[in-house]
Amino acid sequence: MMLEIILFALTVFTAIVVAKRSPTLKRDINAARMLVTMKMMYAWYTWRGFNIPVLWEKTVEKYPGKTALIEAHTGRTFMFSEIDEVSNKTAWVLKKFDVKPGSVVAIMMPNSMEYVASWLGAGA
């Protein structure tokens, strides 16, 4: 992973040297910086054994009463603890139906808080 990041950085540096007067140079450098940062964060989180359900639980523990989502079309707001409660219910229902890690689960719902909670519950 680190070799891939270094090679990518060298490629970007070469492109900058070649295209000194590019009108999109600032944007391209910013995009490259963001990509390298994301790849490094991914490597760090993977190395530490973090995944989305683990990160979600840590966030809920830290900010249970804070607003997590605002539905644009309705204006409803949802706290982290509310979404966590629905996602836990979803996880228990899936467990009751013998859905195991690695199983394929399809979620067909409109974009809403319930969709996010169901997705988190399916990932747990």
From TrEMBL:
AMP-dependent synthetase/ligase domain span: 57-122
Alphabetical GO CC annotations of the entry are: endoplasmic reticulum membrane; plasma membrane
| Pfam families, sorted | AMP-binding (PF00501)
> What is the residue range of the signal peptide feature?
1-19
For whether the record's keyword set contains Nucleus, the answer is no
Q: GO: which molecular function terms? A: ATP binding; long-chain fatty acid transmembrane transporter activity; long-chain fatty acid-CoA ligase activity
Keyword ATP-binding included in the entry's annotation: yes
Top-level lineage group: Eukaryota
Q: Tell me which Gene Ontology terms the entry assigns under biological process.
A: long-chain fatty acid import into cell
UniProt catalytic activity: a very long-chain fatty acid + ATP + CoA = a very long-chain fatty acyl-CoA + AMP + diphosphate; tetracosanoate + ATP + CoA = tetracosanoyl-CoA + AMP + diphosphate
UniProt keywords (A-Z) are: ATP-binding, Ligase, Nucleotide-binding, Signal
Please give the family membership noted in the entry. Answer: Belongs to the ATP-dependent AMP-binding enzyme family.
Q: What is this protein identified as?
A: Long-chain-fatty-acid--CoA ligase
- The organism named in the record is Oikopleura dioica (Tunicate)
